[in-house]
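pls design
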């Protein structure tokens, strides 16, 4: 279950009700909770008192869009006690080199996506391939969950309708696996 997928669980405005949300999450060890955030700097101060090293049913995912965000968020994320950590390279706005963080084995998944909406910035397939290769080197699971509206491949810009972005992402990921002769590198593949 995604928590605040269109918002941010750690935004300051959530402070008054966050403890109630933690109470619900604590009571449901049978449900897997995915909490994405860009506010990794607030996570430590917002964890429940009995968090300890993290709860097994909770995954925290940090969103990064460029190399500067990776540098400012990933080192900090690795210091936060957590059982399951993901990286959402979304919206992917430039080529990222994540090998220094992935080699720590502190992250279970990198999932990439382009930006949607009429004013979206283009996403280059080559950037996704770079992430795929960093993940392959470190044995980290990888997924492309959305192409974004404007997708560049082999120097050509494609405009992809919103309803086709997930299907095209699956095709792009399949092409990467074939090109690099891998069977499965995505945690999401089983559900597709």
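designed seq:
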């Amino acid at each position: 279950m995604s928590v605040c997928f269109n918002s941010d669980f750690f935004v300051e405005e959530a402070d008054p009700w966050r403890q109630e949300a933690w109470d619900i999450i604590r009571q449901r060890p049978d449900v897997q909770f995915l909490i994405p955030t860009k506010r990794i700097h607030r996570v430590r101060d917002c964890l429940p008192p009995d968090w300890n090293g993290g709860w097994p049913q909770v995954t925290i995912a940090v969103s990064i869009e460029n190399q500067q965000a990776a540098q400012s968020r990933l080192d900090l994320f690795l210091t936060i006690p957590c059982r399951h950590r993901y990286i959402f390279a979304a919206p992917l706005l430039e080529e990222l080199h994540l090998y220094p963080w992935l080699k720590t084995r502190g992250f279970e998944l990198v999932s990439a996506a382009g930006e949607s909406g009429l004013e979206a910035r283009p996403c280059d397939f080559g950037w996704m391939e770079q992430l795929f290769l960093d993940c392959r080197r470190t044995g980290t699971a990888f997924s492309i969950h959305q192409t974004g509206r404007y997708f560049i491949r082999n120097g050509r810009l494609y405009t992809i309708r919103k309803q086709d972005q997930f299907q095209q992402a699956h095709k792009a990921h399949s092409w990467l696996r074939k090109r690099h002769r891998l069977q499965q590198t995505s945690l999401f593949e089983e559900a597709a």
